[in-house]
Specification:
The strands form nine sheets. The chain has an eight-stranded mixed β-sheet, with helices on both faces. Strands 9-20-15-12-14-13 form a six-stranded parallel β-sheet, with helices on both faces. It is α/β, with parallel strands linked by helices. It is built from 31 helices and 34 strands. Helix content is 36%, strand content 19%.
Length: 906
């Protein structure tokens, strides 16, 4: 049962305290309230306390979501401190894999992703009586899904209160989204800045006007130099901390190095402390920013400090005007992370970080014209990201079709299609009659339980099948963070040498496993300080190594919940076979494979010794899925000797499309792993006498890449009925099959007998055609017989009951009217008797051939006893033909006397 502190107080210096009475009244009277306030107004820390004062938190938690882990932790710590309780008591927090929520908790601060995950088991959010969605203006994908679900949920939960907080950015959109039957949701404005902020524009690089007058100056400074100049300028303005906004960790590190040198040169920065603030810092490092201090601080931060957290004591801001904005490329089907100019709204948020304790100054390192030309707001994440993870979660939660979900801004239909396509690639979903009936597969239900990118989760699931869970957990954790290996610009060669000891031929991924095993061994034998020092000396970022270790531990726990566990947890154990590891990883990267292009034909034929272009040029470019082109990143261990086929854990577009974390693969692996994706094409069938089956050539393509070319396969794989027909035609009718079956020998003899009868009667139509023979076998041979192997298996059983089932008779082979009416087979004897001699006869019906007709076989020993005229009258069956032929050679007058010929001949 939650325990609520007996007294709740509010810091008088916070602007929200002035609005306490209004907020209490509006929250008590409305189911949904929008609270708008600039950064520093106190809304993040005081709203949960206001809800406690209203009696919320007794029948369920007061859920308080934050977009980032660092913000969730710092907000929870601050609220707990103000309430005089320990963290985990009245105030708890939950972030990925860390839960500090106890039985007495009334306020639960968490990331928005945690609350989304809870929908899997608590669709109606019955464990909460209040939900505060903080920093909603950031419009992350999680926030938009939460707001859409809450909109649907509120009519079913009239007891649930929802508070949406936002900076003063487009609050009308949130109010309209949660509008009641009569009016939009109420908006309470809370002032967050007590003092004016002066904006100064200090663009750098290129040509721009000087500060005074109209002269133009040529400024060749880079960003680091511009930041140092701005910090120097602000330091001369008076005491106070300086907050510098930069786009990423690399920029922060370079700037920190430059500023550290300035602090040693004397005033105005002498004794200044340089701190960093970005999401991947350890909790202890992040906490330093909030500790009380003496002297000046310069805090170098990414946009994590824009709205999510308030850095205390800031009087000045330097805004580089850029941030890394994640964007999905519909053309390349990859997520890009370009550095972009921030929107006007973000720039205003940054400026709002100063001026809370005294008049502030914000220096923008770009021009005013540049500022005015920027978009008013940052695009919502839902309009610039791959939606696969959201679709996976929404499908699991039964939230229906993404296209029909009540988002504040509907996503691009192309993004929805691409998200579904990725899940289909991962074999995570199956389509229903419509999008609302889309279902998760067994694999999909496993993926949704692993709190990492769906591609990485798919690798872990496949690793269980391949028997390499230990290695793939290491790889998946590594691919979820920034690379812990560092290559300082001034020490690139030394760093490369230090990292080379871990290189595994043909695989950047197994290199990560080898590095992990080395780190695990060293951690077990070194003290914490010595391990940290060894990481630094080996050009490994200690904080990222710690993050890798933590994430691996957390991911291992998550995998265990779906019964996926490493077989061998001993870090010194042998690696699983590389092929098995790569197959598991490939399951998540089927659209990230590439085939090396053939050598450039233009370079062929050059004579040796004619410069660098003599001989064919080694190709470096790969043809990827759907016609894309990429190259292996220069930092990869495979860049110098690119293999024929590769997979890439990451495809990132900067000046070109680069493949990072690359491994060599066999293209045939993709056929099994992507069986639901590959397309097969076949050539014309042909009969193979040796194997006793119809065969053809097969080509298998994956996203346009030929993973299998010209493979010989049985035609029954293409068309079983056609393969059966070809078997009967070639093996049984035409006898193009070397088989010892007795019925075939019998049938050969019967066919010879039938052929001989046709020769005797001199009838071309005596023997039935191949079609009749085909029908004979077709009626009797089992329907599943498509090859010699199938026939042998079927005939082994069939002949037990009907041993003569496939035996031909002469009657089967002769046409019904083969023997003309009036003829007796006895008129075509096998022997000729003359003068006591019995001579063998043979028949042949082949007009024009020397042996056409009846042939008498006379032994040489009796040849002188035989006279030619003894054979003038032919065998009885052919005498009519003989008489007819003789009459036709007679003179015309005689022939006329013998007419009609038929009665005369008879």
């Amino acid at each position: 049962m939650p325990s609520v502190p007996p007294a709740i107080s509010y810091p008088a210096e916070l602007p929200i305290t002035v609005s306490r009475g209004e907020l209490l009244e509006v929250i008590a009277s409305n189911q949904v309230v929008i609270v708008a306030g600039e950064t520093g107004s106190g809304k993040s820390t005081q709203l949960p306390k206001l809800c406690l004062e209203l009696g919320r938190g007794h029948n369920g938690w007061i859920g308080h979501t934050q977009p980032r882990r660092v913000a969730a932790r710092t907000v929870a710590e601050r609220v707990a401190e103000e309430l005089g309780t320990d963290l985990g008591g009245t105030v708890g927090y939950a972030v990925r894999f860390t839960d500090r929520v106890g039985e007495a908790t009334a306020i639960k601060v968490m990331t928005d992703g945690i609350l989304l995950a809870e929908l899997q088991r608590d669709r109606e959010l019955r464990r909460y009586d209040t939900i505060i969605v903080d920093e909603a203006h950031e419009r992350s994908l999680n926030i938009d899904v939460l707001l859409g679900h809450l909109k649907r949920l509120l009519p079913r939960r009239p007891d649930l209160k929802v508070i949406v907080t936002s900076a003063t950015i487009d609050t009308a959109r949130f109010a309209s989204h949660f509008a009641g039957p009569d009016a939009p949701a109420p908006v309470v404005e809370v002032s967050g800045r007590s003092y004016p902020v002066e904006i100064r524009y200090r663009p750098y690089g290129g040509l721009h006007p000087a500060d005074e007058g109209d002269d133009v100056i040529d400024d060749d400074r880079d960003q680091v130099g511009a930041v140092c100049d701005a910090v120097n300028e602000l330091a001369r303005e008076g005491p106070g901390d300086i907050l510098v906004f930069l786009s990423g960790e690399r920029e922060i590190r370079d700037t920190a190095d430059a500023l550290a040198k300035l602090t040693l040169t004397g005033r105005p920065l002498a004794g200044t402390e340089i701190l960093a603030m970005y999401a991947r810092l350890s909790a202890a490092e992040q906490h330093r920013v909030f500790e009380s201090h003496r002297g000046r601080r310069v805090v170098l931060a990414t946009n994590v400090a824009e709205t999510s957290i308030t850095v205390p004591g800031v009087r000045y801001v330097v805004d580089a005007g850029t941030a890394r904005i994640s964007r999905y490329s519909h053309r390349l089907k990859v997520q890009r992370l370009p550095i972009e100019a921030v929107s006007q709204a973000s720039a205003n948020q940054r400026a709002g970080r100063c001026g809370r304790v005294a008049p502030g100054i914000c220096i923008r390192l770009y021009s005013e014209d540049d500022y005015r030309s920027r978009p008013e707001f940052t695009d919502p994440e839902i309009q610039r990201t791959n939606l696969a993870s959201a679709i996976l979660q929404m499908t699991n939660l039964g939230l229906g079709d993404v296209a029909g979900f009540p988002f504040l801004d509907p996503p691009d239909p192309r993004a929805i299609r691409d998200g579904v396509a990725l899940l289909e690639e991962l074999d995570a979903v199956v389509a229903g009659r419509d999008a609302d009936n889309r279902k998760l597969t067994k694999v999909g239900r496993q993926l949704v339980r692993l709190p990492i990118d769906p591609r990485l989760a798919r690798m872990v699931v496949e690793a269980d099948r391949q028997g390499c869970v230990r290695e793939v957990l290491v790889i998946a954790a590594a691919l979820s963070i920034q690379d812990p290996r560092e290559r300082p610009t001034d020490k690139e060669q030394a760093a490369a040498e230090a990292h080379r000891q871990f290189a595994m031929p043909g695989s950047d991924l197994l290199t990560l496993v080898r590095l992990w095993d080395h780190l695990s061994e060293r951690r077990a034998t070194l003290s914490s300080s010595r391990f940290r020092r060894e990481c630094r000396d080996g050009f490994l970022n200690y904080l990222r190594v710690r993050e890798w270790i933590d994430l691996h531990r957390q991911l291992t726990r998550a995998a265990a919940t779906i019964d996926i566990r490493p077989v061998d947890t001993d870090p010194s154990g042998d690696l699983a076979h590389p092929d098995r590891v790569h197959k598991a990883v490939l399951a998540g990267l089927l659209s990230h494979v590439g085939m090396k292009e053939k050598p450039d034909d233009k370079t062929k034929g050059n004579k040796a010794g004619r410069g660098p272009r003599s001989g064919p040029r080694e190709p470096r470019e790969y043809r990827g899925a759907r016609g894309s082109k990429f190259q292996i990143s220069p930092g990869s261990g495979l860049a110098r000797k690119p293999p024929a086929w590769v997979m890439a854990a990451e495809l990132v577009e900067t000046n070109r499309l680069w493949a990072r974390h690359v491994a060599a693969i066999e293209p045939e692996w993709a056929e099994d792993l992507g069986a639901h994706l590959v397309k097969r094409s076949y050539g014309e069938p042909r009969w193979d006498e040796r194997s006793g089956r119809a065969v053809t050539t097969e080509q298998v393509t994956l996203y346009g890449l030929p993973v299998v070319t010209a493979r010989r396969v049985g035609y029954d794989r293409v068309d079983r009925q056609a393969a059966r027909d070809l078997f009967i035609e070639h093996a049984l009718v035409r006898r193009e099959w070397d088989s010892p079956h007795a019925f075939l020998t019998h049938n050969d003899e019967v066919m010879e007998e039938a052929q001989a009868m046709g020769d005797r009667f001199r009838r071309a139509d005596t023997f039935v055609d191949d079609h009749a023979l085909f029908e004979f076998y077709d009626d009797r041979v089992g329907p599943d017989v498509v090859s010699g192997r199938h026939f042998d298996r079927w005939w082994k059983h069939a002949r037990r009951d009907q041993p003569a089932l496939l035996d031909l008779t002469v009657e089967d082979l002769l046409e019904s009217d083969t023997v003309p009416e009036g003829l007796d087979p006895a008129d075509f004897p096998d022997t000729w008797i003359q003068d006591g001699l019995t001579l063998a006869l043979s028949y042949r019906f082949e007009p024009g051939h020397d042996l056409d007709g009846v042939t008498v076989r006379i032994p040489l020993a009796v040849l002188n006893q035989v006279e030619p005229w003894d054979f003038d009258w032919q065998v009885p069956g052919l005498r009519a033909d003989l008489v007819d032929a003789l009459i036709r050679t007679a003179p015309k007058d005689l022939r006329r006397q013998l007419s009609p010929l038929t009665p005369t001949i008879e």
